[in-house]
Amino acid sequence: MTDSGYSSEQQAPPPGCPAHAGAVRLGGLQYQQTPSQLYRAMRREHGPVAPVLLDGGIPAWLVLGYSEVTYVTSHDELFARDSRRWNQWEHIPQDWPLLPFVGYQPSVLFTEGEEHQRRAGVITEALEGVDQFELARDCELIADDLIARFAGSGQAELMADYAHALPMRAVVQMCGMPTSGEDTSRLVDDLRISLDASEGDDPVAAYGRVGERLRQLVKDKRAAPGPDVTSRMLTHPAGLTDEEVVQDLISVIAAAQQPTANWICNTLRLLLTDARFAVNVSGGRLSVGEALNEVLWLDTPTQNFIGRWAVRDVQLGGRQIRAGDCLVLGLAAANTDPQIWPESHVGAENAAHLSFSNGEHRCPYPAPLLADVMARTAVETLLERLPDLVLAVEPEELTWRPSIWMRGLSALPVRFTPVVQ
């Protein structure tokens, strides 16, 4: 370990990937607690594009710079999404934990060009059918129901009891699934495992179970469509197959549930630990809005996204990227790039962050707006119902989940004056 807090591998470069001597192994304690310091150290040593090693020592590039991430996401003809281009597939075992992220699927995530526009258009129009006022009302009702379950006890663990549960129920309701029940609970747990596995979890198997549950949903909605996202995708004139709808639903639900849950919890952490928000936080709509946006800059739920694959040999950030190389988009690092924040001060009123990515493959409109409705309603409703909410532990006792991909707390314990129902 170096004093910068990360491990640089001093072995020979992995096969097929140049310039990976001294590559940074993605993982370790610092990713859990202080990733911003790690990104700064990597940027000092390697510049805006750093050689890294993924699980099992698989080489890739981490794009740290704001302008470099913007360039990559704006030039699909150079950095494309179809992972079958990868020059490392011969080294990837079948149980590789990142397969749910990079294994090619007939999903909107891996399509390109006109096919991507067709598939993304279906998702956009299906989401545009969601009434944002109705969604806010539904989220408030869900919030009230969740709060009622712990309000009388004077204490709660908000990560499990609130932040994860609310967007889960909202999203499955949008897609036409029951908002409760064993099937739905298993689906959400499998989504978490496939996106952010803990030790002992099997993300590949979990991803398979998610697909099976959504195939049944698509079959049900094909037979009896309703006023929901799934039915609108199935009846869209583009004529997606059932399997295409299943794969794109996985993308929609995964992108909405886990990141929104972490956005909610990270915002609550900021409001409960930062003195700037201590005054007039209860019901403070402006303060909540500022906190939500600041979290997208400084503690964005999706830290890193894998990835893009180089279409041909190309230069990026002073690095020679070879055709078929994998690039990991360092969204969190880019958001705190000193080139855009030279005085290390992030302006919370500025919305030019990359938390929803950028370019053709960014989160499709209006997904960020719907996520904002869910997160804002969750935070505001909780603070209005429990105005004396405080942390039940010291701020430094809070711990982050050990993930290089998602930024979320392991738990957020709080206490408050019990509310008699």
UniProtKB/TrEMBL annotation:
Compositional bias of kind Polar residues: 1-11
Residue ranges of coiled coil: none
SUPFAM superfamilies: Cytochrome P450
Region named Disordered: 1-21
GO function term, MF aspect, one: monooxygenase activity
TM stretches of this protein: none
CDD domains linked to this entry: CYP_unk (cd20623)
Family from the record: Belongs to the cytochrome P450 family.
Protein known as: Cytochrome P450
Species annotation: Streptomyces capillispiralis
